[in-house]
Amino acid sequence: KAKEQGRNRFCYYSDDLEHQFKQRQSVEKLIRTSIENDKIEVYYQPKVALGSQKIVGVEALVRLRDTNNQIILPVEFIPLAEETGLINALGESVLKQSCYAAKEWLDKGFRIKVAVNISAKQFTDKNFCNFVAQTLQMSGLPSELLELEVTESALMEDFEVTKSMLNDLAVLGLTIAIDDFGTGYSSLSYLKLFPVDVLKVDQSFVRDMMVDSQSMDIVKTITSLAHSLSLLIVAEGVEEKQHLNKLIDLGCELGQGYYFYKPMPKEEFDKLLV
Length: 274
Ligand code: C2E
Ligand code: MG
Ligand code: MG
Ligand code: MG
Hints:
The protein has 274 residues and is an alpha/beta fold. Helix content is 53%, strand content 19%.
């Protein structure tokens, strides 16, 4: 009996593995075909000045669409894209679309800064900086309207490589934001060593700050740290009015979250610009 059970369990387990394997294969195929057919989609989530709630920028967030026309979120495919090296082509598509979009908005009279997420893997691509420079030039977007968002952990992967890459990028005139700030466990000294302009307070701290005094303390500390280093601060995950009020109290300049806007396709964002 035990043997039978064991065998059943084994069968179940192997089905599960097979399922996972197939799932990965189909996601990888979707990434590949989306790249080949120019079907990488970019959603834009507005960033607002907390005081006036005026839109000052957007974050570009990649989306894929499966064969049933359903939107697939980054959590489902970014790790696999990183493992397979497809992140480079995917990231290039996002950067390109973002620069052209922001140039279009600028031509309509709206200075909207566009922030693009960059994986650590892309930093190891020797050609990355050239690609950014080329894309800025081709699109005609002034470099001060481009921001690159990098996580703390991505910065720490290879200190020397990252440092020279960030310096080369900063020379282009774009800005660098540290994403999910406070969730990495690196020393703060890199803030002096790297050309960083913006800290994005991780959304977990903003979400919990009204119910958990530690999260509140972290948001306060990050805000005062940013101010003393003359860095701009963006609060992520602003979902409620009380978050907004508290963040304004703390002197936090910019915010992003469902309270203001969700990520949306470009056509929808275009309609907000009037
Ligand atoms: P992130 O860069 O920290 O982006 C913020 C995420 O929080 C987005 O999820 C956004 O939709 C979500 N969000 C915004 N406001 C709120 C809110 O008020 N409440 C909650 N609960 N969530 C909110 P999304 O689009 O699913 O992206 C997830 C992550 O995937 C991003 O986190 C980023 O790390 C990564 N990612 C997205 N696009 C790209 C890309 O083009 N390249 C790379 N390498 N990574 C990307
Ligand atoms: Mg981001
Ligand atoms: Mg700078
Ligand atoms: Mg984040």
